């Protein structure tokens, strides 16, 4: 597994709440071996009546994201390019992120020399690229910080990211409701997070534990994986061997969830219900078919990249969001985590990455 995968902050589906005035986008791309969806964008509309979407001052947007070595990251880049292509007044200049934060920083420094109007950046690591954000902002080039947060608010003009704590809350809320419906008062609950050293993983687990605790529940066994199929299978095998009976399991990531389900199938374990994380197309198809323990997934959408391009365009043109009273794009946007079940999977399937 590459370092860019290990540093991965991750996903979610539907831009929570409001459609962005310049065009909020709902996405999809390659995940696992499922047929990829097309990028979901809001097409730009012509004419004076189109408001913010009408062609305006040309905006050159610089863009950088880690290599597309994972379904969600592939969707990030795909969505950014597709949304930029939907606007006749946007030129997208992409630079390679390289293998690590240092390589990405070097490429971005070159990009500053080209003087784009705005830069959209999904960093290898938000803390390590914070200095670049400060440099770009000081040079008069606004930065839209995508997903992996810069710790310094001065390093970005706008930050759009997912709510990792909210993912844990959503997963726990679903489990609590299901356990109460089944009359299970003391459920045995397992958890398979992603890389434990990542802040995003810790936030997800905290949201999960806090919400379970409020209902009088707790996690009995927690075995981390690394956001990949093989590590998901290995972690699940270890967990299933340690817990002979289980009522519910939250797996943080739908890609590693393929391995989790493989381990459950190999062990002949079907007594528990499983909740995924991210909102991949494959996971939604499994939920819809209702033939595996996977009964729901909580989302973390790569649509944020499409929306980041729309926001960058508005910033470059000095506009605000059409549905808001304020004259400028907000400083921060946090996406909501949707819960996908058999009942609504058909509606959300086209948005799976």
From TrEMBL:
GO terms for molecular function: carbohydrate binding. Gene3D superfamilies: 3.40.50.2300. GO terms for cellular component: cell envelope. Keywords: Signal. It is found in: Cell envelope. Its main location: other. Residues 61-319 form the Periplasmic binding protein domain. Belongs to the bacterial solute-binding protein 2 family. PANTHER family: D-ALLOSE-BINDING PERIPLASMIC PROTEIN-RELATED. This is Sugar ABC transporter substrate-binding protein. It comes from Actinoplanes utahensis.
């Amino acid at each position: 597994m590459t370092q860019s995968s290990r540093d991965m902050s991750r996903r979610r589906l539907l831009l929570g709440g409001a459609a962005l005035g310049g065009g909020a986008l709902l996405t999809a791309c390659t995940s696992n071996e499922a047929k990829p969806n097309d990028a979901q964008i809001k097409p730009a509309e012509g004419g004076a009546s189109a408001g913010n979407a009408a062609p305006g001052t040309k905006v050159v947007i610089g863009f950088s994201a880690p290599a597309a070595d994972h379904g969600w990251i592939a969707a990030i880049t795909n969505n950014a390019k597709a949304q930029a292509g939907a606007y006749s007044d946007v030129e997208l200049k992409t630079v390679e992120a390289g293998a690590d934060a240092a390589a990405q920083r070097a490429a971005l420094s070159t990009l500053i020399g080209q003087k784009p109007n705005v830069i959209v950046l999904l960093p290898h690591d938000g803390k390590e690229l914070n200095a670049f954000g400060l440099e770009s902002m000081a040079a008069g080039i606004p930065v839209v910080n995508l997903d992996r947060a810069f710790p310094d608010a001065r390093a970005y003009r706008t930050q759009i990211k997912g709510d990792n704590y909210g993912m844990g809350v959503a997963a726990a809320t679903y489990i609590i409701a299901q356990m109460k419906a089944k009359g299970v008062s003391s459920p045995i609950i397992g958890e398979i997070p992603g890389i434990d050293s990542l802040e995003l993983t810790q936030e997800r687990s905290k949201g999960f534990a806090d919400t379970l605790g409020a209902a009088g529940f707790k996690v009995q066994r927690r075995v981390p994986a690394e956001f990949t199929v093989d590590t998901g299978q290995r972690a699940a095998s270890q967990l299933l061997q340690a817990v002979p009976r289980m009522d519910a399991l939250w797996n943080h990531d739908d890609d590693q969830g393929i391995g989790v389900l493989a381990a459950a199938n190999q062990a002949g374990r079907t007594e528990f219900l499983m909740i995924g994380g991210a909102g991949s197309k494959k996971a939604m198809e499994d939920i819809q078919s209702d033939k595996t323990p996977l009964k729901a997934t909580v989302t973390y959408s790569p649509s944020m990249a499409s929306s980041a391009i729309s926001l960058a365009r508005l910033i470059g043109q000095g506009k605000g969001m059409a549905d808001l009273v304020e004259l400028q794009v907000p400083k921060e946007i946090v996406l909501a985590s949707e819960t996908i079940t058999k009942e609504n999977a058909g509606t959300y399937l086209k948005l799976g990455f």
